[in-house]
Amino acid sequence: MVEQATQLPLLEQVDVGYSGGRWGVNSGGEAEAFRTAMRRIVGGVTVITTLHDREPWGMTVSAFTPVCMDPPTLLVCVNNRTTTASDISRGGRFAVNLLSQAQLYLSQLCSRAGEDKFIGDYVVPPSGLPERVMMPVLRDSIVTFDCRATDILSVGSHLVVISAIEAILAPQSLPPLLYGEGRYLHGIAIGEPATRREIST
Protein backbone atom coordinates (compact mmCIF):
# COMPACT_ATOMS: atom_id res chain seq x y z
CA MET A 1 0.00 0.00 0.00
CA VAL A 2 1.33 3.46 -0.91
CA GLU A 3 1.17 5.87 1.99
CA GLN A 4 1.31 9.66 2.08
CA ALA A 5 4.34 11.07 3.92
CA THR A 6 4.44 14.39 5.75
CA GLN A 7 6.56 17.02 3.97
CA LEU A 8 9.72 17.75 5.98
CA PRO A 9 10.67 21.37 6.75
CA LEU A 10 13.36 22.70 4.41
CA LEU A 11 16.04 22.87 7.13
CA GLU A 12 15.52 19.21 8.04
CA GLN A 13 15.72 18.22 4.39
CA VAL A 14 19.08 19.96 4.02
CA ASP A 15 20.56 18.44 7.16
CA VAL A 16 19.76 14.77 6.57
CA GLY A 17 22.57 14.10 4.07
CA TYR A 18 26.35 14.56 4.38
CA SER A 19 27.53 15.10 7.97
CA GLY A 20 31.13 15.91 8.70
CA GLY A 21 33.00 13.68 6.26
CA ARG A 22 32.16 10.26 7.75
CA TRP A 23 31.65 8.36 4.52
CA GLY A 24 29.91 5.01 4.55
CA VAL A 25 31.85 4.07 1.41
CA ASN A 26 35.24 5.62 0.61
CA SER A 27 37.02 3.63 -2.08
CA GLY A 28 38.42 3.48 -5.56
CA GLY A 29 36.72 1.43 -8.24
CA GLU A 30 37.02 -1.97 -6.54
CA ALA A 31 34.28 -4.51 -7.24
CA GLU A 32 33.26 -5.00 -3.60
CA ALA A 33 32.90 -1.26 -2.99
CA PHE A 34 30.89 -0.94 -6.18
CA ARG A 35 28.60 -3.77 -5.05
CA THR A 36 28.10 -2.10 -1.64
CA ALA A 37 27.30 1.25 -3.25
CA MET A 38 24.87 -0.28 -5.72
CA ARG A 39 22.89 -1.82 -2.85
CA ARG A 40 21.82 1.73 -1.95
CA ILE A 41 19.88 2.13 -5.18
CA VAL A 42 16.17 1.57 -4.64
CA GLY A 43 14.27 0.39 -7.70
CA GLY A 44 11.48 -1.76 -9.00
CA VAL A 45 11.91 -5.54 -9.11
CA THR A 46 12.16 -7.05 -12.59
CA VAL A 47 11.80 -10.64 -13.80
CA ILE A 48 12.84 -11.57 -17.33
CA THR A 49 10.79 -14.38 -18.82
CA THR A 50 11.81 -16.64 -21.71
CA LEU A 51 10.82 -19.99 -23.15
CA HIS A 52 13.23 -22.74 -22.07
CA ASP A 53 12.58 -26.17 -23.58
CA ARG A 54 9.28 -24.61 -24.70
CA GLU A 55 8.26 -23.90 -21.09
CA PRO A 56 8.04 -20.50 -19.30
CA TRP A 57 11.25 -19.67 -17.41
CA GLY A 58 12.01 -16.63 -15.24
CA MET A 59 15.02 -14.85 -13.75
CA THR A 60 15.11 -11.85 -11.42
CA VAL A 61 17.45 -9.10 -12.64
CA SER A 62 18.57 -5.79 -11.17
CA ALA A 63 19.83 -4.07 -14.34
CA PHE A 64 16.93 -2.81 -16.45
CA THR A 65 16.41 0.63 -17.96
CA PRO A 66 14.56 2.35 -20.80
CA VAL A 67 16.86 3.61 -23.55
CA CYS A 68 14.68 5.79 -25.78
CA MET A 69 11.06 6.42 -26.78
CA ASP A 70 11.55 6.65 -30.54
CA PRO A 71 11.73 3.83 -31.31
CA PRO A 72 10.67 2.29 -27.96
CA THR A 73 13.82 0.56 -26.73
CA LEU A 74 15.02 -0.87 -23.42
CA LEU A 75 18.17 -2.45 -22.02
CA VAL A 76 18.69 -5.36 -19.66
CA CYS A 77 21.83 -7.04 -18.34
CA VAL A 78 21.98 -10.78 -17.62
CA ASN A 79 24.79 -12.96 -16.31
CA ASN A 80 26.24 -14.76 -19.32
CA ARG A 81 26.36 -18.09 -17.45
CA THR A 82 22.61 -18.28 -16.88
CA THR A 83 19.90 -20.17 -18.71
CA THR A 84 18.19 -16.87 -19.46
CA ALA A 85 21.29 -15.56 -21.25
CA SER A 86 21.41 -18.71 -23.36
CA ASP A 87 17.71 -18.45 -24.21
CA ILE A 88 18.04 -14.80 -25.28
CA SER A 89 21.21 -15.44 -27.28
CA ARG A 90 19.58 -18.34 -29.10
CA GLY A 91 16.10 -16.97 -29.81
CA GLY A 92 16.41 -13.21 -29.32
CA ARG A 93 13.00 -12.97 -27.64
CA PHE A 94 12.11 -12.34 -24.00
CA ALA A 95 9.74 -10.33 -21.81
CA VAL A 96 10.45 -7.87 -19.02
CA ASN A 97 7.94 -8.05 -16.14
CA LEU A 98 7.91 -5.32 -13.48
CA LEU A 99 6.58 -6.91 -10.31
CA SER A 100 3.82 -5.76 -7.99
CA GLN A 101 3.83 -6.17 -4.22
CA ALA A 102 1.73 -9.32 -4.66
CA GLN A 103 4.65 -11.03 -6.43
CA LEU A 104 7.41 -10.98 -3.82
CA TYR A 105 7.43 -14.80 -3.79
CA LEU A 106 8.11 -14.78 -7.57
CA SER A 107 11.12 -12.51 -7.15
CA GLN A 108 12.52 -14.91 -4.58
CA LEU A 109 11.76 -17.98 -6.71
CA CYS A 110 13.41 -16.49 -9.81
CA SER A 111 16.53 -15.34 -7.96
CA ARG A 112 17.68 -18.74 -6.65
CA ALA A 113 21.03 -19.51 -8.21
CA GLY A 114 21.52 -22.98 -9.67
CA GLU A 115 17.85 -24.01 -9.38
CA ASP A 116 15.16 -24.60 -11.97
CA LYS A 117 13.02 -21.51 -12.52
CA PHE A 118 10.10 -22.88 -14.49
CA ILE A 119 7.16 -20.55 -13.85
CA GLY A 120 4.32 -22.09 -15.83
CA ASP A 121 1.98 -21.91 -12.83
CA TYR A 122 2.36 -18.11 -12.60
CA VAL A 123 1.86 -16.90 -16.17
CA VAL A 124 -1.18 -15.74 -18.08
CA PRO A 125 -2.32 -18.59 -20.36
CA PRO A 126 -1.58 -17.96 -24.07
CA SER A 127 -5.33 -17.92 -24.77
CA GLY A 128 -5.59 -14.81 -22.59
CA LEU A 129 -2.91 -12.85 -24.47
CA PRO A 130 -3.03 -10.79 -27.68
CA GLU A 131 -1.49 -12.58 -30.68
CA ARG A 132 1.40 -10.09 -30.88
CA VAL A 133 2.70 -11.18 -27.45
CA MET A 134 5.26 -13.98 -27.90
CA MET A 135 6.82 -14.42 -24.45
CA PRO A 136 5.44 -15.44 -21.02
CA VAL A 137 3.55 -12.75 -19.10
CA LEU A 138 3.52 -13.01 -15.31
CA ARG A 139 0.11 -12.59 -13.65
CA ASP A 140 -0.24 -9.49 -11.45
CA SER A 141 2.79 -7.68 -12.91
CA ILE A 142 2.41 -3.90 -13.07
CA VAL A 143 3.59 -3.96 -16.71
CA THR A 144 5.12 -6.44 -19.16
CA PHE A 145 7.25 -5.53 -22.18
CA ASP A 146 7.51 -8.17 -24.91
CA CYS A 147 10.95 -7.65 -26.44
CA ARG A 148 13.12 -8.53 -29.41
CA ALA A 149 16.89 -8.26 -28.97
CA THR A 150 18.46 -5.96 -31.54
CA ASP A 151 22.01 -5.85 -30.17
CA ILE A 152 23.79 -8.09 -27.65
CA LEU A 153 27.13 -6.99 -26.18
CA SER A 154 29.41 -9.01 -23.91
CA VAL A 155 30.72 -6.86 -21.04
CA GLY A 156 32.67 -8.66 -18.33
CA SER A 157 30.46 -11.31 -16.71
CA HIS A 158 27.24 -10.09 -18.34
CA LEU A 159 25.40 -9.72 -21.61
CA VAL A 160 24.05 -6.23 -22.28
CA VAL A 161 20.89 -6.73 -24.32
CA ILE A 162 19.42 -3.77 -26.21
CA SER A 163 15.90 -4.58 -27.33
CA ALA A 164 13.01 -3.28 -29.37
CA ILE A 165 9.66 -3.35 -27.60
CA GLU A 166 7.18 -5.36 -29.63
CA ALA A 167 4.20 -5.24 -27.23
CA ILE A 168 3.19 -3.70 -23.90
CA LEU A 169 0.64 -5.10 -21.45
CA ALA A 170 -0.42 -3.40 -18.22
CA PRO A 171 -3.42 -4.18 -15.98
CA GLN A 172 -5.15 -1.67 -13.77
CA SER A 173 -2.66 0.16 -11.54
CA LEU A 174 -0.99 -2.02 -8.88
CA PRO A 175 1.49 -1.00 -6.16
CA PRO A 176 5.07 -1.79 -7.27
CA LEU A 177 7.48 -4.07 -5.45
CA LEU A 178 10.72 -2.24 -4.63
CA TYR A 179 14.16 -3.44 -3.53
CA GLY A 180 17.11 -1.65 -1.94
CA GLU A 181 19.68 -2.01 0.85
CA GLY A 182 19.29 -5.79 0.61
CA ARG A 183 15.56 -5.92 1.41
CA TYR A 184 12.15 -5.57 -0.19
CA LEU A 185 10.40 -2.21 0.20
CA HIS A 186 7.19 -0.38 -0.71
CA GLY A 187 6.83 3.19 -1.87
CA ILE A 188 5.63 6.23 0.08
CA ALA A 189 4.38 9.30 -1.77
CA ILE A 190 6.02 12.58 -0.70
CA GLY A 191 4.14 15.83 -1.25
CA GLU A 192 1.56 16.47 -3.94
CA PRO A 193 1.96 14.79 -7.34
CA ALA A 194 3.32 17.11 -10.01
CA THR A 195 0.89 18.16 -12.72
CA ARG A 196 1.66 17.47 -16.37
CA ARG A 197 2.28 21.20 -16.90
CA GLU A 198 4.83 21.37 -14.04
CA ILE A 199 6.73 18.42 -15.47
CA SER A 200 6.98 19.98 -18.93
CA THR A 201 8.20 23.43 -17.79
What does this molecule look like?
There is one protein chain. This protein is an alpha+beta fold and 201 residues long. It is built from five helices and twelve strands. The strands form three sheets. Strands 4-3-7-8-9-6-5 form a seven-stranded antiparallel beta sheet. A three-stranded antiparallel beta sheet has the order 2-10-11, with no helix packed on it. Residues 1-16 have low confidence and may be disordered.
Tag the structure with descriptive keywords.
5 helices, 7-stranded antiparallel beta sheet, single chain, 3-stranded antiparallel beta sheet
By DSSP, the count of extended strands is 12
Indicate the structural class: alpha+beta
Number of helices: 5
Helix share bin: 10-25%
| Percentage beta strand | 35-45%
What's the order of the H and E elements? EHHEEEEEHEHEEEEEH
For the biggest sheet, the summary is:
7 strands, antiparallel
- Global Rg: 19 Å
- Molecular shape: globular
The neighbouring-strand order within the major sheet is 4-3-7-8-9-6-5
Instruction: Provide the low-confidence segments as ranges.
Output: 1-16
Distance N to C terminus: 31 Å
* Average pLDDT reading: 85
How are the SSEs placed, and which strands pair?
Elements: E1 3-5, H1 10-15, H2 31-38, E2 43-44, E3 46-52, E4 55-61, E5 64-69, E6 72-79, H3 83-91, E7 93-98, H4 104-109, E8 143-155, E9 158-169, E10 178-180, E11 183-185, E12 188-190, H5 196-200
